[in-house]
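The instructor's notes for this session suggest beginning with a concrete chain rather than abstract definitions. Hand out the sequence below and ask the class to guess, before any prediction is shown, which regions might be ordered.
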Amino acid sequence: MNETPDSFDLMPGAADSPVILHVPHSAREIPAPVRDGIVLDDAALERELDHITDAHTAELAAAVAAAADVAPWRFVNRLSRLVIDPERFPDEREEMLAVGMGAVYTRTAHRAPLRPADADPHTLIDRYFHPYARAMTGAVAERLAATGQAVIIDVHSYPTARLPYELHGDGPRPPVCLGTDEFHTPPELLALAEKAFAGVGGVGIDSPFSGTYVPLRFYEREPKVTALMVEIRRDTYMSEPGGPVGPGLTRVMSALTTLVDAVSR
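After discussion, reveal the predicted structure:
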């Protein structure tokens, strides 16, 4: 890879593992020049980070990597999604633009101003979004070359109560929501995930969040790249909105490890 990974880390797993645990929203760090473009005061920004960060998901992925029979690879965003959101389309295809939350957010989770309405997103997209996408594309290509397949497990969490930015938050909010893609999520992968997370307290499909992340080079083109989004409701493993982990984290870690082991066989 040609990019300097100052805003993300690719942590190797076993040479024969097809699995990449993708952790895009776990961090709170915002570089000073980016902070200067955010209109919230420090206290309001901390509150926003509490609500919007998928807290402890990087630690969860690290624990799974250590416990799995075949260690998965990990691709972890080291910057807050308030810098850029690597899982959004960087153009007009992104439906979250309707609430000011495209690749570069202009609104908060409560739809308050985050950046000036006339803020130009292209500097942040060029500096952070495109290098991230290139690096993740390279990581997936390497797993394809090494194992003949790549399995992206997208690790997220979500709040117990709906936040105002959610476009599709009217449906069920199960302890674990599995987000799927018609092209990239085969029934076998979904079935393995449903079985693995059955003991966490209940599993739902595509509610309140749907879809999963696949780099655009492979999106709807390469069936050997499969993907699943795992959204863990935060009250199952932590104190909300941005508090410490609780005893439920062990159960979630065990379930995700079970899924990684099943996919790696």
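Then share the key points. The mean pLDDT is 96. The radius of gyration is 17 Å.
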